Structures are given as C-alpha cells and as structure tokens.
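Figure 3 (text version): structure tokens given as input.
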C-alpha cells in the first residue's frame, strides 16, 4: 500500500470520528509488520478526557488482530478542513511502544501535503522499558 492509498483510508475513517465536543475529527491508519491495514478515529466522551485518539484506536485494532509492530502510521485531522495534526504526547508514546527507528510517521498538513517523521523526531529521549 502506498502513501496515497494509506491516506485514502485515513480520510474515510476520519468521517466516522465522534467529535461532538471539540469538532476536531481525526483519522489514523497504520500498516503493521504483517502488511495489514488498521484504522482508527477519535471518539470523544462527555466525561472529558475519557475519549480516545485515532492513533490509539488504530493501534488497538492492530494489537487485537495480532500485530505487534508499526511499519507506517498516518494521521490527518482538523475541524472542517484539514489542519496540521501531529500525534499528541500520549499517542507519541503509544506509537513509540510499537515502533522502531525505521517506523514512518506521516502527517497530512492543511495543504494536503504529506510530512514524514521518525520516532525520534516526535519523541526524543523516549521512555521505554526493556523486556
């Protein structure tokens, strides 16, 4: 799956976001080490901050399906139109848990251009327990 196809999945799942409070809909799609696609959208809750982020939901889907490593993860969000939407701090740590230094983290900016990051770009000096 190429980046364009991955972002098509992001934009489709973003339409399902439940963002009744912020109005900021986010979609995420990832490819795991088995080549499988997993998607997620943000789901808000009136008991703020009990909602879940799109990235967390995509990662949860990957884990539930037996995946354990993110090869590429893509994120796009905004109010009505796209806005720059990098993963929040919590999601950066969640991504880091299942990523390695080669994992591609893709974000679509307001102009529809893809920006690419690596784990260390978004979470330098990450916290990680050794198994």
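Below: residues designed for each position.
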């Amino acid at each position: 799956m190429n980046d364009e196809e991955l972002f098509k999945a992001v934009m489709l799942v973003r339409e399902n976001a439940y963002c009744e409070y912020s109005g900021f809909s986010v979609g995420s799609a990832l490819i795991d080490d088995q080549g499988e696609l997993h998607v997620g959208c943000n789901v808000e809750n009136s008991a703020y901050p009990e909602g879940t982020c799109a990235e967390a939901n995509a990662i949860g889907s990957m884990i539930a399906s037996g995946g354990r490593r993110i090869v590429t993860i893509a994120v796009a969000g905004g109010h009505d139109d796209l806005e720059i939407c990098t993963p929040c701090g919590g999601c950066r740590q969640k991504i880091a848990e299942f990523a390695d230094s080669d994992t591609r983290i893709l974000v679509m900016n307001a102009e529809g251009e893809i920006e690419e990051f690596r784990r260390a770009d978004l979470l330098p000096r990450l916290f990680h327990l050794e198994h």
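Residues 116 and 125 are 19 Å apart (CA to CA).
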